[in-house]
Amino acid sequence: MLQGIASVPVASSFRNAMSRVGASVHIVTSAGPAGRVGFTASAVSSVTDSPPILLVCVNRLASSHEPILSNGVLCVNTLAEEQEPLSRRFSEKIPFEQRFDGADWGTLRTGSPVLQHALASMDCRILDALEYGTHSVIMAQVIDMKYRQDRARGLIYFDRCYHAVGSA
Amino acid sequence: MLQGIASVPVASSFRNAMSRVGASVHIVTSAGPAGRVGFTASAVSSVTDSPPILLVCVNRLASSHEPILSNGVLCVNTLAEEQEPLSRRFSEKIPFEQRFDGADWGTLRTGSPVLQHALASMDCRILDALEYGTHSVIMAQVIDMKYRQDRARGLIYFDRCYHAVGSA
User: Fold this and answer.
1) Cβ of B60 under 8 Å from any chain A Cβ?
2) What ipTM goes with this model?
3) A110-127 residue pLDDT tens
4) A-contacting residues of B 66-105, CB under 8 Å?
5) Which end of chain B is more exposed for a tag (fewer CB within 10 A), N or C?
6) Strand ranges for chain A from DSSP E
7) Residue from A13, A18, A131, A139 whose CB has the most chain B CBs within 10 Å, to mutate
8) Which domains does chain B have, with CATH numbers?
9) Chain B contact for A62, CB < 8 A?
C-alpha cells in the first residue's frame, strides 16, 4: 500500500514542516498489570463526540507502547502552561517512577494516573491499535474525565519551542 | 465494541473538555472528478515520518466528506495568524467556490488546492478511511509539501477563540 510513490518527501523534511504545526502537549499515562507508565505526547486528536472517542499516536519502539496496549486503558492529561517542566520530565529516558515524582496524581475510573491541575484529563479504554509506519494509532473511548474551568492557559509546542496560549 | 459502558460522558461534556485542548487550524482541500472542496479542520495529527503519514478526522455528514474520499487526495493547509478570516469562511455554509474566493491557491502534485502563504501545506493521497462514531479518520500519505521558513506565527483555536502562537 505504501509502494509506488516515486519521490516521497524524506522524514527530515516532513519533521521540519510539522514543526510549523502547533500542538497541545499531553502526558499520556496508563496503569494496570503491565505497570504504571507515562510519556509526553503531542500527536493526540479528538475523533468524535458520539460516543466520545480520541486517538493517540505512539511510536512502537517507545517503552510505554506495549504496557499501554497490554493494560488496555490510558489517560490523556492535557498540560497547562505551568506544567512545562513535567513535559520535559516525561520526555526523558528515565525510569517511569522517577517521571511521576514531583507531581500529584489521582485516578478516575480506569486507574490510569490523572494529573492534578491538568487542563483536561480524559480517562479511556482502548478500542483499537492500528499500525502505520513506525507508529500505532490508538483509538480510545473516553469513559470518565475532568477539566479545569478556570482561565488557565494552555501549553503549545510550536517551532520546536514551548509557548503559552490563552488569555492571561 | 462501543457497548457495555455504564455511563459514558455525554457529548456536551466532552466538547467542553476538548475546548481546553488547543489545536492548530487548517483548511483541508481536495480536487478531482468529485469537484473542488474545502473545509476548516482542527482534528489533524501527524502519525509517522517513515513514511510521512498524517490523519484528518471528518464528520461523515460534512459536505466535503464524500468528495474528498472519492477524489482520493487531499491537502492540509496549516494557517498562519493572519489567515483567521479564511478559517471563518471555510466554516460557513456557503458554496465551495465562494469559500475559495479571496485567497490565492496553487497546486503541488495531487492537484488539491494549496493555499499560498500557509504555514505548511501537505499534499496527500488517501490510504484508508476508518469509521468511528459520526466521523471518518482519514489516513493520508504525504507525497509533496511546502512550508514557510520565516517566523510567521501560527493560528490556534483554544477556549472557543482564535489565538496566535509563536515569536512575533
Assistant:
1) no
2) 0.94
3) 999 999 999 999 999 999
4) 78
5) C
6) 23-24, 26-30, 37-41, 44-49, 52-59, 73-78, 105-106, 114-115, 120-132, 135-147, 154-158, 161-165
7) A18
8) 24-158 (2.30.110.10)
9) no
